[in-house]
Amino acid sequence: MKKLFLALAFAILATPQLIADEGMWLLQLMRQQNLEDQMRKSGLEISIDDIYSPDAPSIKDAIGIFGGGCTGEVISPNGLVITNHHCGFSFIQQLSTVEHNYLHNGFWSQSYKEELPCEGIAFTFVVKITDVTDEINNRVKNGEMSEEDSFNRQALSKVAKELFEKDEVEGKEHMYSQLLPYFEGNKYYHVYYKKYTDVRLVATPPNSIGKFGGETDNWMWPRHTGDFSVFRIYADKDGNPAAYNENNVPLSTPKHLNISLNGFEQGDFAMIMGFPGSTSRYLTGEEVKQRMFQENEPRIAMRDVTLKIIREEMAKSEDIAIKYANKQARISNYWKNSIGMNKAIVDNKVVETKLAEEAEFKAWAHSIGNSDYASVVENINKCVEEMNRTAYLSTLTVELISNVEFISRNLADQNKKMFETPENVESAMERTYEWLHNRDYNHEIDRRIAKEVLPLYFELTKAEERNPYLNEMYAKYKGNLEKYIDDVYNNSILANEANFKKFMKKPTLKKFEKDPAMKLRSAIFASYMELNAKSKEFAAVMNPLHRTYLKGIMEKANGAPVYPDANFTMRMTYGNVKPYNPKDGVTFNYYTTLKGVMEKEDPTNSEFIVPARLKELYEMKDYGMYALPNGEMPVAFLTTNDITGGNSGSGVLNSRGELIGLAFDGNWESLSGDINFDDNLQRCINVDIRYVLFVIEKLGNCKRLIDEMNIVK
Ligand code: ARG
User: Fold this and answer.
1) Which atom of ligand 1 sits closest to the CA of residue 329?
2) Is the CB of 208 under 6 A from ligand 1?
3) Cβ(333) to ligand 1 under 6 A?
4) Is any atom of ligand 1 closer than 6 Å to the C-beta of 665?
5) Whether pTM exceeds 0.85
6) For 404-479, where are the alpha helices, taking DSSP H only?
7) Residue in 394, 648, 650, 670 annotated catalytic
8) What is the DSSP string of 11-27?
């Protein structure tokens, strides 16, 4: 009895710690939502003003968007940036050739001079965040903006432009802004960004460290990947963004992160700030099923066949292995994620959980006599049923376009326009040809992919759902799609140089429009546009319903903080270091060590090769100042932080805001997490900063980088 009483008292006292670590919190609402109390109880030692302050330097000033879809952070007074290897991957791949294969060998610059400029790269900081909910609501009220437009990115970006132009903020010429709905359109924020485009590759480990475990280990724990790469932001001499220029100088930011070598123990506080891309935490059960069967399933099917071909071709040649590395990683990443998500939705009873929540919500809505709330889920579900087939066909069409480059990188319809100005046709055509036959394009591999993917598209669709032109071709070739594809891949103007040169002798719109690849592309894009238009119609019904549903959920929460779905804007998540039990009788430790790398070594499998130098260091236990107290080398660790794709590269910060690792993945058992956060199972997979620095110093011999960091012991 006494024991029970004690247990109860403990539960009450400990309640704050038992509160879920779920939540991708908005920096601008941390005060209002009283997060500081919760975070303190979890172990936070600094103030939340140190994390985010609208008018003084704070940690947020050290963190930014890396590239187009990742997070990175500044870790030195000289603009040194760290992110994941898989975030730097496309840039590293672009810089790699068979002679200078940085994917295979790594890259370790020994001076500023050796740092490599990267095309198309950017690092983007958040400058300012303002609440513009009233502004948007008023516009809708006054009839200046339709309700539909209040969810529409393009319409909102017009408002953003208008507000931005009026604003007299200093340094505006180096900024841009973005205005988005949050909480399903119950709130609107206008965010100012500053974007640097001279960002150079400083250091990267080889794939055998940065991508160790490859696709086999991706989305899995236990993990042994040194998933990091290092870049540097350059600016003009005044610290402003500037295009690449030899004379640009390393950027000094108002804030950079300190690095802790003290490590952590189970239960220690861990915080992550970054840019989660997209979550769907407020879906109904029916919408979850839509995700499973109309999106994930057809995506898996299409990518299955593409990946099989790419894997085979990459194994045949080093040249192709480089050229297809990024495509393969990209296609495979969400292929495996979709498989894992569908499994986890079933295993973790996500649909059942959603249905139970909906029943509870409905009962509550009745109890307060709100019929809008009471009927909202049913109304959403009605729409889901109507849009299911559109969702399915959209997935197939998008996959068709993105897996077959001869379709996606082909003559765009708008290219027809070039014939309106005949003097430009030559250069425009040449650009189109070059764009398709870029360094990484391989016509024959693409042909193989088309020969698998197009027939699969036919198999998975009914005749009346397909584009009429495709049906026409099917009939014309008597169902022999292979022959059809060969004709397209052999005879198109863009198929090869000979065809192209012949066409260019006398380029006419007529010939251009007759091109079989042009026709194929136009047909598929027409289907895509049609499906898009239909999806928009559904969205017009769905968006206001979701706004109502979330408004109700917030009202029902009765003051308890609620967070909005991820939308690739900056968020903060806090939690702690924690192991988990993936299944009955199995416990996963919360960290891994270099020993595990050696255990996984398999010289016959490209995903599990261990560099000789790493083995040497392991044998000598030459870990410098980075070893654990017991002399081992830590590699990866688990925390309960709530992250998703886009957060990749985010720093994991300890209770004092010091860097202890980099988030790089989620775990297999909780891949339903974008839809429903599972306290028991959801973990964030991070690489230990001590492993990162060890590799930089001992394997890369880049002590110069360690010396510019601020390391606290
Ligand atoms: N799953 C990781 C993420 O989405 C990406 C890991 C990339 N590695 C790979 N083997 N494809 O952030």
Assistant:
1) 11
2) no
3) yes
4) yes
5) yes
6) 405-408, 422-436, 443-460, 468-476
7) 648
8) HHHTHHHHS-----EEG
In 476-589 the beta strands, taken as DSSP E runs, fall at 571-576, 580-583, 586-588
C-alpha 70/C-alpha 664 separation (Å) is: 10
Q: What is the DSSP letter of 34?
A: T
Q: For residues 164 and 181, give the distance between their C-alpha atoms in angstroms, rounded to a whole number.
A: 17
Backbone angles phi, psi at 647, to 5 degrees: -75, -15
Give me ligand 1 centre to Cα 329, in Å: 7
Per run of 10 residues, the mean pLDDT along the chain (length 713 residues) is 41 42 97 94 96 96 97 98 98 97 98 98 98 98 97 97 96 96 98 98 98 98 98 98 98 97 97 98 98 98 98 96 96 98 98 98 98 98 98 98 91 71 86 91 98 98 95 97 98 96 92 92 94 97 98 95 97 98 97 98 97 98 97 98 98 98 98 96 98 98 98 90
Going from the Cα of 160 to the center of ligand 1, the distance in angstroms, rounded, reads 33
Got the DSSP string for 207-241? Answer: HHHHTTTHHHHTT-SS------EEEEEEE-TTS--
299-311 exposure pattern, b = at least 16 Cβ within 10 A, e = fewer: bbbbbebbbebbe
The answer to whether 86 is a known catalytic residue is: yes
Distance from the CA of 665 to the center of ligand 1, in angstroms? 7
> In the numeric block, which tokens belong to residue 191?
């965010």
Taking a C-beta distance cutoff of 8 angstroms, is the pair 182, 207 a contact?
Answer: no
